[in-house]
Amino acid sequence: MKVFLLLPVFLFSGLLSYSQSCTMPSDSATLTWFNTIYTSGCSFSTMNANDPVVWLSSDLFYSDEMCGACLELSTDISSTVVKVDGECTGCPNGHIDVNKPAYDLIAPSMSGNYRAKWTMTECPFATNLQIAITSSSNPWYFSATLIDHLYPVSTLEFWNGTNYNFILRNSNNQFEDPMGIGSGPFQFRITDIFGHVIEVMNVPLSSAVFDSGLQFDQCANPSSVDEMSQPLIRVYPNPANSVVYLLSENKSELSDGFNYWITDLSGKQFSNGRNNSFQAIDISSMPAGFYFMNVNIKGEVYRYKIVKE
User: Fold this and answer.
1) Which of 49, 106, 205, 236 has the most CB atoms around it within 10 Å of its CB?
2) Are residues 184 and 234 in the same domain?
């Protein structure tokens, strides 16, 4: 059975434990550099103007889950690792806006636009995951940013004495509860996009950055999947929040129906069934995030990245 990986699916050394294999998103993009006053688009208070950071076009940014992701950028000249620090809403699709320190590392002799390949990777800048509670937080209002994570963060939950409750993420990459979560100390559960989980105890209600002393497990066998040119089938709409359809340039390919299954990046299955191109596939009950749509057509498996909003 052939497997076609058609769209991108989403190095650090030290005393890290290893978990399941992870598939890293990988694609190509056009780079340009900016040399403006540095302001974090992801509310990272510990970064400065000399850090190699990038802002992604909206089709690559997907959601604020991309904040803090590390990408290895490679050209025919050199490569370097950068950190995602925001969305470039004015950039065309397939575009990465690179700050000057990063551009000097990857293409020091170039100017203007330049093509590069990017692959998500472990953050070499990461030490321990840190929790930066904002100075405006109090028992009746809470907001915080998570910093220095090995992989992008998917969810933050707090323990209310009985169970864990989700804290929603706002458009500035801050986890915010407008009603507050109490006076602390807090117990948090933090999950990355690959399903790694850490629990942080005794976090005070303080604007000082809290060092958790912990880090996500390291992926055992990270691999990347590139986008293939001219895919036969595509998922529409993508991103989506309720239903998706599979469309084909060749209508006969899907006319006999197909089997599908949807998994997250860790391999957990959320949905499966048999369908055809004229039927909607319901994804409304799935949490927001990155997923794979796996489609078996006449013994050939096609895998697509989909984004649930």
Assistant:
1) 106
2) no
Residue-level pLDDT at 227? 41
Q: Is 11 part of a structural domain of the chain?
A: no
Domain assignment present for residue 10? The answer is no
Q: The CATH number of the domain where 91 resides is what?
A: 2.40.40.10
Q: Please state, rounded to an integer, the average pLDDT across all residues of the chain.
A: 79
Read off the pLDDT band of 69 (50, 70, 90).
Answer: very high
What string of H, E and C letters represents the secondary structure of the chain?
A: CCEEECCCCCCCCCCCCECCCCEEEEEEEEEEEECCCCCCCCCCCCCCCCCCEEEEEHHHHCCHHHCCCEEEEECCCCEEEEEEEEEECCCCCCEEEEEHHHHHHHCCCCCCCEEEEEEEECCCCCCCCEEEECCCCECCEEEEEEECCCCCEEEEEEECCCCEEEEEECCCCCEEECCCCCCCCEEEEEEECCCCEEEEEEECCCCCCEECCCCCCECCCCEEECCCCCCCEEEECCCECCEEEEEECCHHHCCCCEEEEEEECCCCEEEEEEECCCCCEECCCCCCEEEEEEEEECCEEEEEEEEEC
With a cut of 70, say whether residue 207 has pLDDT above it: yes
Peptide bond into 185 cis (omega under 30): yes
Model confidence at 266, pLDDT cuts 50, 70, 90, reads low
